[in-house]
Amino acid sequence: MIKSFAGWSKIIILVSGFYILSQVSSVYLPVILAMIVAFVLNPVVNLFTAIPLGTRSRHLPKSAAILIVFLLSGIVMSIAITFVFLPFINEFNNFVIDLPHLSSRIKNLTTLLEQRANLAQLPDNIRSILEEGLGGAASYAVGLVRGAINTAFSFATQVIELVVVPVLAYYFLKDWPTLKDSVVTIFPPSARGKAITVMGEMAVVVSNYIRGQVLISIIMGLMVFCGMYFLQVDYPLVLGLLSTLTETIPILGPIVGAIPAIVLAYLVSPVLATKVAVFYIILHQLENHIIVPNVMGHTIDLHPTLVIISLLIGGHLYGIAGMILAVPVAAILKVLLRHLWNLDDLKKDG
Question: Considering Cα of 177, then 165, then 161, then 26, what sign does the dihedral take?
Fold first, then answer.
């Protein structure tokens, strides 16, 4: 009777916990950002704590190392704000002012392409497909840029909530072993060893993925900015930032990020659009065959089919945020499934 009561109590607590989490989705953003910051800075913190102090076997306390890393991160961010963010703000303001004019030019371009398709005397069904495709592509390009603007403004409105991000990141960095142990104690003693193994694997997969993805996004954003600046495409900083953001969506993100650049280039001339398209093709070949293998390795080890399915499911459930989180969540589920699938065999062997 007592065991039955304890079991039902655990189930009720778990269900109540999941219900509460589903009702406070607004707190997810600062928590997720704090975890990303912690995963990115953790190797640097470990590097500082490994530095010996004096002749004795003394090392820098972890709390002091975290504060030093935060200070260095603040200096780097200040430099980035001065030389990157402020120029970006000016260019972004010009882009917002010019957006209605760009939308009008894109619509005129779509009309012109439709007229040329009519003059080509194409079959009605092919002409209809082309018209719908051109209209959809133009609308999508404009909508994508407007969506990015709305996302930036909505993100800015949550600055007050984001103030807690450094605080959460500090405690994630400092007390991760304690937090992990408190989670492990939820499991029965016989399963705690397995829980530690699973949590360790999940932490390695997620941390490596986040660090690798952040680095790849920055590299691709810088390369797009340099390429667009060299090709003299309008708003290279905006396109570089857009590439950085879309790069967080595997496979589909780079394609989506290339569309606005090609459209903006086509508004100048078809020749420039061709150059931009060739640039993106070469860039993503470099990404797929050189940058990603060297930065990410086999961190996730998911087949591209599973990645695409995960992106579709994440996008359907939670939009862009769901697509960004889809791959690491799929990797975590893969770790869980692998261990749970062999659980019965392990019990038999034991």
Answer: negative
Residue-level pLDDT at 302: 75
DSSP assignment of 210-232 equals HHHHHHHHHHHHHHHHHHHHHHT
Q: Which of 149, 174, 199 is the last residue of a domain?
A: 174
- The CA distance from 44 to 292, in Å, is 22
The more confidently predicted of residues 141 and 307 is 307
User: How many whole angstroms separate alpha carbon 62 and alpha carbon 65?
Assistant: 5
Q: Mean pLDDT over residues 279-300, rounded?
A: 81
Cβ(30)–Cβ(165) below 8 Å: yes
**Is 5 within a domain?**
no
98 with 158, same domain: the answer is yes
pLDDT at 70: 93
Residue 323 located in a structural domain: yes
Query: 192 and 164 in one domain?
Result: no
As for how many domains the chain has, the answer is 2
326: exposed, middle or buried (C-beta count within 10 Å: 0-12, 13-18, 19+)? buried
Is the sign of the CA dihedral 79, 82, 87, 88 positive or negative? positive
Which residues contact residue 326 at a Cβ distance below 8 angstroms, ignoring those fewer than 6 apart?
307, 310, 311, 313, 314, 315
pTM assigned to the model: 0.73
Q: Could you tell me the residue range of the domain that residue 307 belongs to?
A: 187-344
CB-based burial of residue 8 (10 Å sphere; 0-12 exposed, 13-18 middle, 19+ buried)?
Answer: exposed
Residue 302, domain member (yes or no): yes
Whether residues 211 and 290 share a domain: the answer is yes
Q: Are 47 and 68 contained in the same domain?
A: yes
**Is 153 within 8 Å of 92 (Cβ atoms)?**
no
Does the CA dihedral 29-298-333-312 come out positive or negative? positive
Residues 268 and 329 in one domain: yes
Same domain, 206 and 313: yes
Helix or strand run (H / E) with residue 170: helix 164-184
- Residues 221, 241: contact at Cβ < 8 Å? yes
